[in-house]
Write a structure and sequence with these properties.
about 750 residues; alpha/beta; eight-stranded parallel β-barrel; seven-stranded mixed beta sheet; binds flavin-adenine dinucleotide; binds flavin mononucleotide
Length: about 750
């Protein structure tokens, strides 16, 4: 093959040598604007997994790379005068320059035509061979020239950072956090050879401007950073290397190739430096592309498609982790000074979701034992219940108190509509559904969305609490839960608003009924789908009536013996549709500003709070974002949470979306947890988090990192009513069985 590569960074060089290694007959030229030794930057980091991939692809490069390594296994977090050390992480680093020199020599030895000091400014003449590879980094010229084919997006992040070097030795991957008059400064530092370390300084744009760094020369920046970090540098200097303050672009491309032109490495995708994976991704791309070309000889377009198909899922997973990580560093102000040291360390270590409480425990049992002891002591203090410290229980098995309601653990069965009621009446299905989940070990069981009036039901199958018979029906379930399990049970009260009078979900989610529709109400006459029924805009009398329906339901809920009420302010139902500017277009004092849009939901909350016994807690489920431009935002969620807290709400159950059918959610593991985290810290109120939580490792991580106080699982509980019992078994925690199941105390389940 005749291949031209623009860019002699890790991606271009490694690909060139892998191709030559496979077939010396390939003609490969690498055009690099710099000389062989004048690279920017300092060190790069590899994990053991990446090294295995490199070893398999080219043992010679691997041998040389590993020969040059600095190894370390600890992460040191310097926070408020303490150093928190977590071990067992297994990183290796080397200088970027050394890595490039190794790859250059190896490429040259295999016969690659390396041409330094060749700045490419015109791409077209280079498109004559079999393949033109754009390995030209994050600012790729080729990508820019063919933007219509690659369809790139560049998400420029707000923080400023600079990549410096230092002669100070670091024994661990080290994070410093330091506040001065300008703001909070973060440092990511690590050793990469005997005499040098990387020292990346990062801060907000506001702090950077305030410190006068926007117009500073490289020398001024170094002087500023040396003074600021004099103590951390321990008398060592900072070193420069064409250092500039930059903003980080997350680069994505809809396509990585067209015709015979392909993107690789940073040109195709970037991952924030705080996950230290840019070089890894670049080199793994090179391996995948060389493999794909070998598998489809003579068919370059097919090989390019196979390369993208193979790499994209892994790259996107890493970009999601990097996104969570960079956001943590953009929002460190939220945690700094608020979180206790161990909690801060847990939050930092688990930020990207790639490290959980479970892998931390494997890597560093002592650190996790300390963390769990600290968490258990905090739980004991919060709940007023004794919690053993030696050994401390897994965080999910610590108690939590809301007013007089004491939860034995932090797992909650999420409200889930069953569409199995007749005229609102809970029946045997609800009895078995909720009863089995209570026996399954969760600390709190929530009923499905239970409607406060007949017309407020989503569908004809929805449960209700608008007649005294309903209270009796619910009481049978509540009594069973209290008698047969240690769980508490809460009821989610709601009115479906413009999403009322629709089919059961399995007959067509939110679709209007084919017949038998009833009139529906909302803040504004906006239908859910264009073909949905148009709701009537509520007048004041109707608002009074619905508020009183909620109050009646609260009294009936008390009669039925429920431990908690949750008001449903989420998912586009009536009270949610007052909050969202997309569904509330009122011109009176209930529409317009957020304060106006909150007015009616808060009025309902206050009326229910007054009717509900003072010793029993209340929660509110909110949708923290509409996932739409111009919709309800996470900042609005904080404002609503603050108002609810002032009105006597005990905990916010933070969900998201379902306000409008054309929402654009970003799904993923724990995808809604960042909103619970934000509300918890910015409104200083306990939160429940829900959404794609399915492992006990994630539950424990969320709790110790202070992202939420309770973890709510929906589908995981549909699948496995005994989810909490399984989690206890897996963690070696003795969760007592109800007496009739006592025989299980000495039973070991075997599934294979
Ligand atoms: C602050 C910071 C810290 C980082 N830390 C790490 C880390 O710890 N670990 C890690 O793995 N990664 C790290 N990275 C990321 C890493 O540097 C890149 O992800 C990696 O180098 C990507 O390799 P690449 O070959 O795709 O691109 P690059 O390394 O950027 O190489 C592109 C090459 O193309 C050349 N070039 C560009 N345009 C032209 C042109 N028109 N003509 C000729 N030549 C051209 C450039 O000179 C350059 O040599 C960090 C990045 C930053 C910014
Ligand atoms: C069958 C089903 C019914 C649901 N009904 C409700 C409901 O009544 N009230 C509510 O607030 N959320 C409801 N949800 C949303 C869940 O409570 C939860 O927020 C969502 O499923 C995300 O959690 P998960 O990823 O653990 O499933 C329902 C979800 C499912 C799967």
């Amino acid at each position: 093959m005749d291949i031209t590569i623009i860019g002699g960074g890790p991606a271009g060089l490694f690909f060139s040598l892998l191709m030559k290694r496979r077939d010396p007959a390939h003609r490969i030229a690498v055009l690099e604007r710099n000389g062989p030794d004048d690279t920017f930057g300092w060190g790069v980091v590899f994990s053991d997994e990446t090294l295995n991939n490199i070893a398999a692809a080219d043992p010679e490069s691997y041998a040389e790379i590993t020969h040059s390594f600095a190894h370390w296994d600890a992460i040191d977090i310097h926070y408020q005068g303490e150093v928190l050390t977590s071990r067992g992480h297994g990183f290796s680093g080397l200088s970027r320059k050394r890595l490039l020199n190794i790859l250059q020599r190896r490429a040259q030895a295999l016969g690659v035509d390396l041409r330094f000091h060749q700045e490419v400014s015109d791409v077209e003449p280079l498109r004559r061979g079999d393949l033109l590879l754009a390995a030209d980094g994050a600012n790729s010229l080729v990508r820019g020239r063919h933007a219509e084919a690659f369809r790139p997006t560049l998400d420029w992040r707000p923080n400023k950072f600079i990549w410096l070097g230092t002669t100070r030795r670091f024994d661990a991957f080290t994070f410093f956090f330091k506040r001065d008059a300008h703001g909070l400064w973060r440092v990511h530092a690590y050793q990469f050879d005997a005499g040098h370390g990387t020292f990346i300084v990062e801060t907000t744009e506001a702090a950077w401007r305030s410190a006068g760094l926007a117009n500073a020369s490289e020398d001024d920046t170094i002087a500023f950073c040396e003074a600021l970090f004099a103590e951390e540098l321990q008398g060592h200097k900072l070193l420069k290397s064409r250092a500039l303050w930059r903003s980080f672009p997350t680069v994505r491309n809809e396509r990585w190739s067209f015709d015979r032109v392909a993107l690789i490495g940073d040109a195709a995708h970037t991952a924030h430096f705080s996950v230290g994976s840019g070089t890894k991704l670049a080199m793994e791309d090179a391996i995948a592309l060389a493999d794909a070309l070998a598998r489809a000889p003579g068919d370059v377009p097919a090989a390019l498609a196979a390369y993208e198909a193979a790499r994209r899922p892994e790259v996107e997973a890493l970009q999601r982790a990097a996104q969570a990580s960079l956001q943590w560093f953009e929002e460190t102000e939220r945690y700094f000074g608020t979180l206790e040291p161990l909690e801060f360390a847990a939050s930092l270590l688990t930020r990207s979701l790639r490290i959980t409480h479970a892998n931390l425990k494997q890597r560093d049992p002592d650190f996790v034992a300390r963390l769990d002891r600290w968490f258990a002591a905090k739980a004991a203090n919060q709940s007023g219940v004794n919690v053993p410290a030696e050994p401390a229980p897994p965080p999910m098995f610590t108690p939590f108190r809301l007013r007089d309601m004491l939860l034995a653990n932090r797992v909650v069965v999420s409200p889930m509509c069953q569409y199995s009621a007749e005229d609102g009446m809970p029946d045997d299905w609800h009895f078995v559904h909720l009863g089995s989940r209570a026996v399954g070990g969760a600390g709190l069981i929530m009923t499905e969305m239970t409607d406060v009036s007949r017309d407020g039901r989503i569908s004809p199958g929805c449960a209700g609490l608008y007649k005294s018979e309903h209270a009796a029906g619910w009481q049978r379930i509540v009594d069973f839960v209290h008698r047969a399990s240690g769980a508490k049970i809460g009821i989610q009260l709601a009115h479906a608003g413009r999403k009322a009078s629709t089919r059961r979900s399995w007959e067509g989610d939110s679709e209007p009924l084919p017949q038998g529709n009833w009139p529906i109400i909302a803040p504004s006459p906006i239908p859910y789908f264009p073909h949905s029924q148009v709701p009537r805009a509520m007048d004041r009398a109707e608002m009074d009536r619905v508020r009183e329906d909620f109050v009646r339901a609260a009294r009936l809920a008390d009669e039925a013996g429920f431990d908690m009420i949750e008001l449903h302010f989420a998912h586009g139902y009536l009270l949610a549709s007052f909050l969202s500017p997309l569904t509330n277009r009122r011109a009176d004092e209930y529409g317009g500003s957020l304060a106006n849009r909150m007015r009616y939901p808060l009025e309902v909350f206050a009326a229910v709070r007054a009717a509900w016994p003072a010793q029993k807690p209340m929660s509110v489920r909110i949708s923290a974002t509409d996932w739409m431009p111009d919709g309800f935002t996470p900042a609005d969620a904080v404002a609503v949470a603050l108002a609810l807290k002032a009105a006597g709400c005990d905990i916010i159950d933070v969900s998201a979306g379902q306000t409008v059918p054309d929402q654009r959610p970003v799904y993923g593991r724990l995808f809604q947890t960042p909103f619970a985290d934000r509300v918890r810290h910015e409104a200083a109120i306990p939160t429940m988090t829900v959404g794609n939580i399915s492992s006990y490792a994630d539950v424990n991580s969320i709790l110790v990192a202070g992202r939420a106080d309770l973890c709510v699982l929906a589908r995981a509980h549909l699948y496995d009513p005994y989810w909490t019992r399984h989690a206890a078994y897996e963690q070696g925690y003795a969760l007592p069985w109800p007496d009739p199941y006592g025989a299980l105390a000495r039973y070991t389940p075997r599934f294979t």
